[in-house]
Amino acid sequence: MSNLQISLAIVGGLVLAGVVAYNAWVTRRNTPRTAREPEPDPAPADTLPQADDGAPLPESLRRAEAAMPRPALDPEARIEPTFGAELAGEPSERIEPSLDGDAPVTVVPAEASDAPRTPPVVPITLNTMVPTLEKRPGLDALIDVIAPLALDGLVSGEAVIAALPATRRVGSKPFAVEGLNDSTGEWESPRPGQRYKALQAGVQLANRMGPLNEIEFSEFVMKAQAFADTVGAAPDFPDMLAEVARARELDVFASGHDAQLGFTLRARRIAWSPGYVAQQAARVGFVAGALPGRMVLPVSQPGQAPLLSLSYDTQAAMADDPEQSALREVALSLEVTHVPCSEQPFVRLRQAAAALADAMDGVVTDDAGRALSNEALDAIGADLDNLYEALDGRDLSAGSPQARRLFS
């Protein structure tokens, strides 16, 4: 072969090797990371059979010892398990049930140890993962149009429920009826077996669909009047123009103070599978949500809206083989007006985003794909502080029932 042929063969081999290496790199880059099973802890050396000098026995001897017959235990000579500390006359731990019915908490008496106390670790149970339903907030003159319905006498809860309209909405606004309980003296949604001495109907002034308008107010009057006629009540409706003006003013305030924050976590190199995302998010504290491809971070108080939500492609989550689906980004979102300021939601959002980015080899960006610096995040935090103060000044504190209804 001539030198030219040899050179061409070498160049061709290098090109072929480069193509193979590039294809391998592309395949590896497009193969998503999958969730890993936790590795079992290796057995400690002191649990293995040992010789007289303390060294572990060889594998062959351990197998021989395991194959040897064991003497039968006498059931009459059985020793019940006890706490060694009690036998020695020392104070022992006692197990007391928690007040909320969750997992028991170990309580150590003060005289048992001089070491500093540490808070007990309570295992995660279904009760801590699935919040209980919160009682529906009642009508509030701050965000509702309320029409009193006077009664000549007591009316049963069954009669009130039977007279309720089929739909509980007026246009795009929620419609509700409440009764003044004769025994408790509190306003509540009608319940069977109760008796009410007064009723009131209400419609929300504004929500994210806009303010209450004249047409919706007229529909509210007709719906409330029909209900009052059925139960034999006399309604007293407020002035329409005044209530519509109040609705517009409330909507202007809500539009200027509604905030929904969203961060995007993007993969730097290797994509993720849905199982890998769920595994890493669970380590930060997220639990599965009600919809595929959505996880939530619960707040400290049960029944409240979730602190944060994490979402990714729903089709990838519902695929026949989700582990073969490749995700290159997930979204972290915070409903600012739905979470109390005491939960420090923005701080938790930053911490969760940073922890996931570090564990998953990702980068935190905005919706446009621009990486978010610490300076930009600090500026967002300062704006949120001003937002919380404005909401508090209007008696619509973030996370309150009124705020959650208004910003919905």
Fill in the keyword field for this structure.
single chain; 408 residues; alpha+beta; Cell Division Protein Zipa, Chain: A; 7-stranded antiparallel sheet; 6-stranded antiparallel sheet; 17 strands; 35% helix; 18% strand
Describe the structure.
Keywords: Cell cycle, Cell division. Residues 31-70 are annotated as: Disordered. With 408 residues, the chain is of the alpha+beta class. Among the domains are: 144-255, Cell Division Protein Zipa, Chain: A, CATH 3.30.1400; 260-406, Cell Division Protein Zipa, Chain: A (2-Layer Sandwich), CATH 3.30.1400.10. The protein has twelve helices and 17 strands. Strands 3, 4, 5, 6, 7, 8 and 11 form a seven-stranded antiparallel beta sheet that branches. Strands 13-14-15-16-12-17 form a six-stranded antiparallel beta sheet, with helices on one face. A two-stranded antiparallel ribbon has the order 1-2. Helix 8 (274-284) packs across helix 10 (345-360). The longest helix is centred in the N-terminal third of the chain and has 28 residues, at 3-30. It is elongated, with a radius of gyration of 33 Å.
Topology overview:
Blueprint: H1 3-30, H2 59-67, H3 84-87, E1 94-96, E2 105-107, H4 126-129, E3 144-151, E4 155-156, H5 157-163, E5 169-170, E6 173-181, E7 187-188, E8 195-204, E9 206-207, E10 210-211, H6 214-231, E11 233-235, H7 240-256, E12 260-267, H8 274-284, E13 287-288, E14 294-297, E15 308-311, H9 314-317, E16 329-335, H10 345-360, E17 362-365, H11 374-393, H12 401-406
Helix pairs in contact: 8-10
Protein name: Cell division protein ZipA
InterPro entries: ZipA_FtsZ-bd_C, ZipA_FtsZ-bd_C_sf
Region (Disordered): 31-70
